[in-house]
Amino acid sequence: MKIFREKDYDAMSRRAATVIAGEIVHNPSCLLGLATGSTPEGTYKYLVDWYKQGLLSFQSVRSVNLDEYVGLAPDHDQSYRYFMQSNLFDHVDIVPENTRVPDGLTKDALAFCAGYDAYIRAQGYVDLQLLGIGRNGHIGFNEPDDHFVKETHVVDLAESTIDANARFFASRDDVPKQAISMGMGAIMGAKKVLLCASGEDKADAICRAVSGAITPQCPGSILQLHPNVVLVADEAALSKLIASGVKV
Predict the structure, then answer these.
(1) Shortest CA distance to 99 belongs to which of 121, 113, 83?
(2) Which of 6, 127, 143, 234 does the annotation list as catalytic?
(3) 67 an active-site residue?
(4) Catalytic one among 6, 103, 138, 142?
(5) Given this model, what pLDDT does residue 160 score?
(6) Of 8, 9, 96, 194, which has the most beta carbons under 10 Å away?
(7) d(CA 186, CA 165)
(8) Annotated catalytic residue within 136, 142, 165, 234
(9) Residue 127: active-site member
């Protein structure tokens, strides 16, 4: 695992954007696995700025997103499709038909999930997968469990995840209780994984994921088995890892 230690959130965002931009320049028709939430917002802002400066084009890029809330329409202001449109897709030259986000309103979740995995496999898997990490170690919406789930699936969200996401909704009761999430098979099949973290509240999760036991109780720990992971984190998020003796 290659680790970039950055000063703060902005520096982390810029470094992560540089890694993604490098992938696009090297492989203009790459398949990007994209994430949502507060962690990648700054990264997407840098990518949009570089596009507007004429330094980057998404014309041939394809994308698949990690997850979506069950029950939210694409135009709901807290859906992850809406997030992607607002933070990236609407501001760059990516072809709309080349973007995929799980369908939170699907009537046949089993068939949808199987089709999502089939598409990713047919593309030869993702070229670069962007990930954040939850306070409980979840990646995508793969919550702590007694086993790793391979396939894209419907997840019952952990109480800690609902609590963390409540700030985006009018009340905690409005937070969806389920999500569709890409499974570990597709994540681990990515040719490169870019894991990003910022803030002291992510320090424990990063320490467990990077140097703890490989266990489904900390889903992010499975990345220790991936051959090509880049971790970009600020000093606060790396604080417990550094304190444990890992050199970064």
Answers:
(1) 83
(2) 143
(3) yes
(4) 138
(5) 85
(6) 194
(7) 24
(8) 136
(9) no
138 is catalytic: yes
Q: Is 136 a catalytic residue?
A: yes
Residue 221 phi, psi dihedral angles, 5° rounding: -65, -20
Q: Is the full-model pTM beyond 0.90?
A: yes
User: Which structural domains are found in the chain, ordered by start?
Assistant: 2-243 (3.40.50.1360)
| Encoded tokens for 62 | 């394809």
46-47-50 Cα angle (round to 5): 85
- Sequence length of the chain is 248
Side-by-side strand order, sheet with 153-156: 67-69, 178-181, 153-156
**Burial of 226 per CB tally in 10 Å (0-12, 13-18, 19+):** middle
- Per the listing, tokens 């990516």 go with 94
Given the residues 23, 67, 127, 234, the one annotated as active site: 67
pLDDT tens-digit readout, 188-241:
999 999 999 999 999 999 999 999 999 999 999 999 999 999 999 999 999 999
